[in-house]
Design brief:
Largest sheet: 5 strands, antiparallel
Strand order of the largest sheet: 2-1-3-4-5
Strand content: 15-25%
Number of domains: 1
CATH class: Alpha Beta
CATH topology: Maf protein
Number of strands: 5
Order of helices and strands: HEEHEEHEHH
Helix content: 25-40%
Shape: globular
Number of helices: 5
CATH architecture: Alpha-Beta Complex
Distance between the termini: 32 Å
Radius of gyration: 17 Å
Length: about 170
């Protein structure tokens, strides 16, 4: 159930605080019984202090890819788990290097439409993986769900993550 929240960054909001806030807003927007566990997350790409969310159109995706081409940037994913009134949160920050993109590479990627709905205008789990020669951090967090941290939050909330694993 995707929650309907305004994902517009606040004026002067930094990327990590932005991700944490949006993740929390999403978790609070879902109606649930007190015993239900609601897991929400948000991922953003940060180039310095600049937040690069999901591009609104092809032109913005092109600008994002041009800005990231040949540069290191951060991918920040925040997850929020809510059970009743109790909230658990975790942010994971990874460093990513994008190779310098040729016009042909950039246009072919934009033509693929894989950029749609992706923070920073690319998804590391798709064709853009060929643009990423180096990461430092969590691959699963860059994709949008940091698995180790999610398992830890679920365990903290009493969910039997490892029950039945042998």
């Amino acid at each position: 159930m995707p929650p309907d929240v305004d994902e517009t960054p606040l004026k002067t909001e930094l990327p990590r605080a932005y991700c944490r806030r949006i993740s929390l807003l999403k978790a609070q927007a879902i109606a649930a019984d007190p015993s239900d566990m609601i897991l929400c997350g948000d991922t953003t790409v940060a180039l310095g202090r600049r937040i690069m969310g999901k591009p609104t159109d092809r032109a913005e995706a092109d600008r994002f890819l041009s800005a990231l081409s040949g540069r290191r940037h951060r991918v920040i994913t925040a997850i929020t788990l809510r059970k009743g009134e109790k909230i658990w949160q975790k942010e994971v920050q990874s460093a990513v290097k994008m190779k310098p993109l040729s016009q042909l590479e950039k246009q072919a990627y934009l033509d693929s439409d894989d950029w749609r709905g992706k923070a920073g205008g690319y998804g590391i789990q798709g064709p853009a993986a060929a643009f990423i020669p180096w990461i430092s951090g969590s691959f699963s967090a860059i994709m949008g769900l940091p698995l180790a941290e999610t398992a830890a939050l679920l365990q903290s909330a009493g969910y039997p993550v490892y029950q039945g694993i042998s």
